[in-house]
Amino acid sequence: LCYAAWIRIRPLRLRQDIYDLRDELFDEALAAGALTDPGYRQLRLQLNSWARSAAMISFPSLVYLLVTLDDDLPTPIPSERPEVQAILERTYDRLARRLIRYVAFETLPGLIVLATLVPLWVVRVTFIARIAHRISEIVQQNAADSMRQASPAYSVVH
Hints:
The chain has 158 residues and is mostly helical.
């Protein structure tokens, strides 16, 4: 019952977060005098498009987009003004983070993938850390042995 409600609520939350991003972008562009900037206008259209299609965004649909439309994705129009470009990049980054959070943590397939990959990642990181530590110990031991063999005074002092 809760999951059924969650399925209906999560796209609404995503849509609202995208509208909030769009509103913040508008406020920043207005303050910078960039409402006619082509980069701003393109990003605003993209935010509207993402908000409109929020109910259709899913883990499989984003994977499909990443795999098949890589060359067909529109290139963001850069702004000629560095301060406006910084606003645009910050908004693109925040949108990407929100979409990743939505797909990875707010959808069942995303949670299943995370539940599968996180333990594997932890094992990998732990294994690599242990190997790196052991290699470091071996290198230090070999360096100390080399110093002892090269210098008789070293072994007497140490």
